[in-house]
Amino acid sequence: MRPLFSDTPWFGGDYNPEQWPEAVWDEDVELMRRAGVNLVTVGVFAWSLLEPEEGRYEFGWLDSVLDLLHDNGVKVDLATATAAPPPWLSRRYPESLPVTVDGVRLSPGSRQGYCPSSPVYRRSAARLTRVLAERYGSHPAVVMWHVNNEYGCHVARCYCDESAAAFRRWLTAKYDTIGALNEAWGTAFWSQSYSSFDEILPPRATAAYPNPTQSLDFERFSSDEMLACFLEEKAILREVTPDIPVTTNFMGLFRGADYWRWAEHVDVISDDLYPDPADPDAARGSALARDLMRSLGRGRPWILMEQSPSAVNTRPSNAPKPPGQMRALSYQALARGADGILFFQWRQSASGAEKFHSAMVPHAGTDTRIWREIEQLGSELKSLGEVMGARVQAQAALVFDWDSWWAIEQQGLPATSSYRALVARWHAALTEAGLTVDLTRGDEDLTGYPIVIVPSLFVTTDAQAAAIDAAARAGSSVLVTDQTGIVDENLRVRLGGYLGELQSTLGVWIEEFWPLAGAWVRPGAIPVSPESTVPPTVSVCGSLFADGSATGVEWSETVHVRQAEVVAAFDGGPLDGWPALTRNVRGNGSAWYLATRLGQDDMAAIVRQLIAESGLEVRRPDSGRDGGFVESVQRGDTLFVINHGTAAVTLAIPGTDVLSGGAASGMTLEPNGVAAVVAEVVQASSAS
Ligand code: GLA
Q1: Which of 272, 276, 303, 349 to mutate to test the pocket of ligand 1 (most atoms within 8 A of CB)?
Q2: Radius of gyration in angstroms for the set of CA atoms belonging to the chain, rounded to a whole number
Q3: Which residue CA neighbors atom 12 of ligand 1 most closely?
Q4: What is the pLDDT of the chain when averaged over all its residues?
Q5: Is the beta carbon of 272 within 6 A of some atom in ligand 1?
Q6: 639 - beta bridge partners?
Q7: Would the CB of 306 count as within 6 Å of ligand 1?
Q8: Residue 624: pLDDT band by 50, 70, 90 thresholds?
Q9: Which pLDDT belongs to residue 621?
């Protein structure tokens, strides 16, 4: 297969020339040249123009566009255009439209109006893919295939009869016998025993909670079903154009698709991410998503396929990115392993559903802040060839798994939790401490990581428990937090005290859950009244915390110690005196257990302990960071320092900033400022 990446970062965006008269196209390529654009994604939503009637194609406009781009040195990531079926498809085959959990069949007139299990959708998408591959596979501009678009973005689950039939086929392949399914799903409860696979439906709207394992299997099935759509198109592309790499754009931490299962099938990992400029923590969240993308590709370079130059039009109120933020977030992606920075979209639409979404060429034209920032970034990226292909070295692994995500957010649990928030907080704590973090499903070799964090791995498989234990034995400092090891992959409780196999790793077992009444529920939730019998927080005493005390929120539980040291204990409340934080010596390493959830400062105190005991040396690149999140990431020989905070910081590291050409030491980084620091060339000299 042809390599996609070279020694210049990709720079560009979604290019939708079909929205514009041809007269605009010449100006487009002229402006692309000025901005340094070298890659555009073409045709993502062009199905209805490419195939205006079933089996009748019109390629003239796309021929011209690809030739024009090629003549101007712009490469193309060519879409298979299958994300938005044309009106004729749903008119002729209404059964191809998706159905919601409540049984409502969605109407055409928007996008993504298809059921992933629909045979007619699949057939039509495959036919279009083949025709496009045969026509454009040898076009010199085409360097990558872009299958569909953001699978599951709007319709991640379909509950129609076709989906039900596909679900039954998936279950039959998985369980083989109905007896095995009944056993796995625990159908003896609530009179749910099935006599045949034919009786099974998707978990449509029900009177009370649906069967939890049925729901989890439906999540898995739905992710697999979208993946099957991707694989069908990919197989055609491979057959016709074996040399051209294939991507499909992911959406950061997207709940609807298990990207660990997808990643091995995608030649180039690519991601779409739209951090909210109004959210002061947005850069922390995007750092996590970038680390996930690098980890999905096992460290290989990936592409930021879409981001907005400024505002989006998808939120109730859409803040623009302030000056410099688009640049700072672009460098964040580059620092965390991206070899390409692209946008949605090239030219801001004058009509249609996304006309108020910002673009590289804004409504007001090129005498604009956005355009100047685009030009600046395009020009700067050319000087960052050294970074291309370079690896990012992580010191910590963070376990993140879709099964636990789906399971811990079901109904009928001890408390409501946001898995994403639980994982994000630990990622932020590690990142703030100056560590770089790889994400992992947790069932692979973790022994190389000095620090391993396992937040709320509700579903813990034997393989995960074994890998976590092996990491501790080999010398890692492992921290496991509450709600780990509760159930197996069929959601069957691990009996005999929670934590399952991890009891011997951690030297503790859990008897009972005591969620705190002030538990985080959903944003905007009303806090419980202060008179509640269950307190909203609990004090935790331990000398590692500032002033010897921390505040536990959301969760507490009764922890029995078999052989661990109690590092901190609950102070007051129903669990007064019980262990809250424990540490067990395990082989060459340690295994910590945290039985509550903490604020950032208290999490930082624990991370400092893990860093200290693992002997890691973490150097801060700046002299102080009172104004928020300053991230530093080493990629190859370049240390990126990015100030996402609200106050300026001064760098205190040797080396040269390749962006400004100046010395790094003493350099001031204003909010949204970026430095890309390489070490000064040290002349070898003989000791005298
Ligand atoms: C997604 C889609 C794009 C566009 C953007 C807008 O990422 O892939 O087509 O709708 O959102 O933010």
Answers
A1: 272
A2: 26
A3: 312
A4: 95
A5: yes
A6: 634, 677
A7: yes
A8: low
A9: 83
